[in-house]
Amino acid sequence: MSLLKTVGLGMTYSGAPQPALTSVNFEANEGEFIAVVGPSGAGKSTFLRCLNQLITPTEGQLFFEGEETTHLKGEPLRHLRTRIGFIFQDYNLQGRLSVLQNVLTGLLGQRPALQTTLGIWSKKDVEKAHWLLRDLGLSDQSQKRADALSGGQQQRVSIARALIQSPRLILADEPVASLDPPTAHAVLKDLKRVAKEEGITVLINLHHIDLALEYADRILGLRDGVKVWDQPTSETSESSFTEIYGRNLKADDLAKE
Amino acid sequence: MTKRSWWFWLVGLGATLWAARDMVPSTGEKGEEMANALFWGERGLFRPDWDLLSPVASGLTESLQIAIVGTTIAGLFALLLGMVAAENISTPALSIPTKALLSAIRTLPELLMAIIFIVGVGPGPFAGVLALGFHSIGTLGKLTAEILESLNTKPMEAVVAVGGRRVSIFRYAAWPQVLPEFLSVLLYRFEINIRAASILGMVGAGGIGKTLMFAINARSWDRVGTILVGIVVVVAVVDNISARVRAKLV
Ligand SMILES: Nc1ncnc2c1ncn2[C@@H]1O[C@H](COP(=O)(O)OP(=O)(O)O)[C@@H](O)[C@H]1O
Ligand SMILES: [Mg+2]
Predict the structure, then answer these.
(1) Radius of gyration of chain A from its Cα atoms, rounded to whole angstroms
(2) Which residues contact B70 (CB under 8 A, 6 or more apart)?
(3) Which residues in chain B are contacts of A94 at CB distance < 8 A?
(4) How distant is the Cα of A167 from the closest Cα of chain B, in angstroms?
(5) Ligand 1 center to residue A45 CA distance, Å?
(6) How many CB atoms lie within 10 A of CB B129?
(7) Nearest 5 degrees, angle CA A68-CA A69-CA A73?
(8) Angle value at C-alpha B67, between B65 and B70, nearest 5 degrees
(9) Is A80 on the interface with B (CB under 8 A)?
(10) For chain A, which has fewer Cβ within 10 Å, the N-terminal or C-terminal residue?
(11) What is each CA distance from B35 to B20, B32, B41, B45, B95, in whole angstroms?
(12) pLDDT the model gives residue B27
């Protein structure tokens, strides 16, 4: 079933001479793990940020769970965001708060503001946070300051923060770009495992084609803000990638690691 | 050396000599006698009068209290004005005049403010508190605005992305960064204010300065010596504790 749909989605940043994203028609089904690939500046981040409206698209329409969400503002937009997890390249944790507090942050859109502002969380929520941390191998870290953790651990905390939302969709913008290759693989494996267990749809921007090939069910190729192709991973070929990168970047890409 | 650095040294030396010309100590027998009495005499600076310890202690305590209350009041106002002055939180229409106001406040020295408040509210520690509080708002407000302007927006973006309200963004993303940095500048200001609070009394604004002024006027250098030792000890202890706490905060 279709979870997310974009129709003619476009984005031109104010003052920019040309659009960062042009007429993207895209559909994601429940439980799919989809990679978005393309060279730097292709519009991958712009695409993802339009989907939960961290930036407001200037063209086209957005649909989530069959309902149009294009022009949502205020409370309805906050409500939409509670159902979509977002994972950032730099984790975006509050380093001075504990790991546990950072995970609970994921619930801020869904719990009464007065209580959360006073730092009051239900036993159930705290238990769920602990359970998620344990599931991601971080049970000993919950009381540590978030900035005391390694990069891979911090990204797992941000995954837990997304999962505690009980989201239908997770958007991940280059989640492993700041990690060394073994850690990157470990984090992606974890993300894919929990997404499959919970039936969560994942849209993930990946700079490295080999990571996309290894983990994604489907790959969306972007170039200069335009969707070039959208194929099941098994159907992609060397030439698919040459098409979006303009040269055979696969070898280059590996060398960069 | 380049031609330019020659000029630099020459002008610097000339200015210093010109300034020092009018600063010669009183000479002759009288000058020597006075200097002797000041330092080594029976009632000289280096012969502290330990009987004075209890009035000195209570004067120092009052200075400490003036510094604590003055810094706290300044901190509260600085937090509010800092938010209004911060370009990323406020609007230019408010931010620019507030910044101008804060720098105007910074230019007025504590002692001048103390004299004004003494005339306004009468002599005593309350005038001292107002003087220190008012003066400190200038620097603390500016530093608070700078802290807010350099906020890391990444955690804030994360709270927006989970559907958090403004209050949650503030509480869970901004405040944990702002609080320790704010406390750190507040403590640093407190270190400065404890020094200021020890001379405020010389113009009548409470604290040890009053005792100091009496002792100086009576040329009781032994008592002055005791008071100076007391000030040094208190300032050193405050500096030390404050520096340790600040190191922990950041
Ligand atoms: N905030 C912004 N303001 C103006 N232009 C931007 C902004 N963010 C991105 N762009 C431009 O939009 C294009 C797409 O950027 P981005 O979505 O970040 O690509 P990617 O994530 O694939 O590297 C680039 O040309 C970039 O320079
Ligand atoms: Mg990007």
Answers:
(1) 18
(2) B128, B129, B130, B131, B132, B133, B136, B193, B197
(3) 155, 158, 172-173, 176-177
(4) 10
(5) 7
(6) 27
(7) 140
(8) 105
(9) yes
(10) N
(11) 20, 5, 9, 10, 53
(12) 66
Tokens 């040294």 -> residue: B9
**Contact criterion met (CB below 8 Å) for A3 and A30:** yes
Number of neighbours of residue A166 by Cβ within 10 angstroms = 15
CB atoms within 10 A of CB B221: 24
d(CA B82, CA B87): 10
Mutating which of B160, B162, B171, B183 best tests the A interface, going by the most A Cβ atoms within 10 A?
Answer: B162
* Residue of chain A nearest B179, judged by CA positions: A96
Nearest residue of chain B to residue A49 (CA atoms): B161
Dihedral angle sign, alpha carbons of residues B130, B134, B140, B146: positive
DSSP-derived letter for residue A145 is B
Distance in Å, CA A43 to ligand 1 centroid: 6
Q: Is B208 exposed, middle or buried (0-12, 13-18, 19+ CB in 10 A)?
A: buried
Res. B6: pLDDT tops 80: yes
- Residues A102 and A157 sit within 8 Å (Cβ to Cβ): yes
Q: A93 is written with which tokens?
A: 């944790």
Sign of CA dihedral A68, A74, A79, A83: positive
Q: Residues B98, B81: contact at Cβ < 8 Å?
A: yes
Q: Cβ–Cβ of B163/A92 closer than 8 Å?
A: no
The candidate with the shortest Cα–Cα distance to B213, out of B227, B197, B232, is B227
Distance from CA of B225 to the nearest CA of A (A): 46
CA distance, residue A113 to nearest chain B CA (Å): 7
Closest CA to A40 of A204, A211, A244: A244
pLDDT tier for residue B52 given thresholds of 50, 70 and 90: confident
**Residues forming a β-bridge with A6:** A26, A62
Ligand nearest to the CA of A12: 1
Mean pLDDT of B91-110: 94
Residue A254: per-residue pLDDT: 47
Which residue stretches of chain A have pLDDT < 70?
247-257
Please list every protein residue whose CB sits less than 6 Å from any atom of ligand 1: A 13, 16, 20, 38, 40-46
Mutate to test the interface with B, among A53, A72, A92, A98 (most CBs of B within 10 A): A92
Q: So what's the pLDDT on residue A248?
A: 52
- Pick the atom of ligand 1 nearest to A222's CA: 22
